[in-house]
């Protein structure tokens, strides 16, 4: 150990093996990342909201503040046009998604929030695309 702090100096520390790309991200050829299905990294949220000016901006702003990427968004009117259903496919699901769900429920124009499986979201998207 060298230095006044009692910690090893820069040349005494263990050096990581492997190579880095130009961005500085380590690329180790020996390790392959676990093969994950792209669908497993997505979360699908559907909300029923009151039709008010700026409601979509309020909701998407909440996602942005939590740094949750919206991959897909589908909105459709319901019933007599006073309410709409907005479905979001977000990536990646992390603890921020649970926090976003709780905070969405607190917004005044939001009536309900539900998390769906990806197959249900595909059916919703297909039905909106047909009409």
TrEMBL record:
<comment type="function">
    <text>Catalyzes the conversion of 2 pyruvate molecules into acetolactate in the first common step of the biosynthetic pathway of the branched-amino acids such as leucine, isoleucine, and valine.</text>
</comment>
<dbReference type="GO" id="GO:0005829">
    <property type="term" value="C:cytosol"/>
</dbReference>
<comment type="subunit">
    <text>Dimer of large and small chains.</text>
</comment>
<comment type="similarity">
    <text>Belongs to the acetolactate synthase small subunit family.</text>
</comment>
<dbReference type="GO" id="GO:0009097">
    <property type="term" value="P:isoleucine biosynthetic process"/>
</dbReference>
<dbReference type="InterPro" id="IPR004789">
    <property type="entry name" value="Acetalactate_synth_ssu"/>
</dbReference>
<protein>
    <recommendedName>
        <fullName>Acetolactate synthase small subunit</fullName>
        <ecNumber>2.2.1.6</ecNumber>
    </recommendedName>
</protein>
<dbReference type="InterPro" id="IPR039557">
    <property type="entry name" value="AHAS_ACT"/>
</dbReference>
<keyword id="KW-0100">Branched-chain amino acid biosynthesis</keyword>
<keyword id="KW-0808">Transferase</keyword>
<comment type="pathway">
    <text>Amino-acid biosynthesis; L-isoleucine biosynthesis; L-isoleucine from 2-oxobutanoate: step 1/4.</text>
</comment>
<keyword id="KW-0028">Amino-acid biosynthesis</keyword>
<feature type="region of interest" description="Disordered">
    <location>
        <begin position="1"/>
        <end position="41"/>
    </location>
</feature>
<dbReference type="GO" id="GO:0003984">
    <property type="term" value="F:acetolactate synthase activity"/>
</dbReference>
<dbReference type="InterPro" id="IPR002912">
    <property type="entry name" value="ACT_dom"/>
</dbReference>
<dbReference type="GO" id="GO:0009099">
    <property type="term" value="P:L-valine biosynthetic process"/>
</dbReference>
<dbReference type="InterPro" id="IPR045865">
    <property type="entry name" value="ACT-like_dom_sf"/>
</dbReference>
<comment type="pathway">
    <text>Amino-acid biosynthesis; L-valine biosynthesis; L-valine from pyruvate: step 1/4.</text>
</comment>
<feature type="domain" description="ACT">
    <location>
        <begin position="44"/>
        <end position="118"/>
    </location>
</feature>
<feature type="compositionally biased region" description="Basic and acidic residues">
    <location>
        <begin position="10"/>
        <end position="41"/>
    </location>
</feature>
<dbReference type="GO" id="GO:1990610">
    <property type="term" value="F:acetolactate synthase regulator activity"/>
</dbReference>
<dbReference type="InterPro" id="IPR054480">
    <property type="entry name" value="AHAS_small-like_ACT"/>
</dbReference>
<dbReference type="Pfam" id="PF22629">
    <property type="entry name" value="ACT_AHAS_ss"/>
</dbReference>
């Amino acid at each position: 150990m060298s230095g006044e702090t009692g910690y090893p100096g820069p040349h005494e520390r263990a050096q990581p093996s492997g190579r880095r790309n130009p961005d500085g991200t380590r690329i180790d050829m020996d390790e392959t990342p676990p093969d994950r299905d792209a669908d497993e990294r997505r979360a699908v949220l559907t909300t029923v909201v009151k039709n008010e000016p700026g409601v979509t901006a309020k909701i998407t702003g909440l996602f942005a503040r939590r740094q949750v990427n919206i991959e897909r968004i589908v909105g459709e009117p319901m019933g007599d046009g006073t309410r709409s259903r907005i479905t979001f496919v977000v990536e990646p699901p992390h603890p921020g998604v649970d926090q976003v769900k709780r905070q969405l429920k607190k917004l005044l124009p939001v009536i309900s929030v539900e998390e769906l499986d990806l197959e249900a979201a595909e059916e919703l998207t297909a039905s909106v695309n047909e009409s």
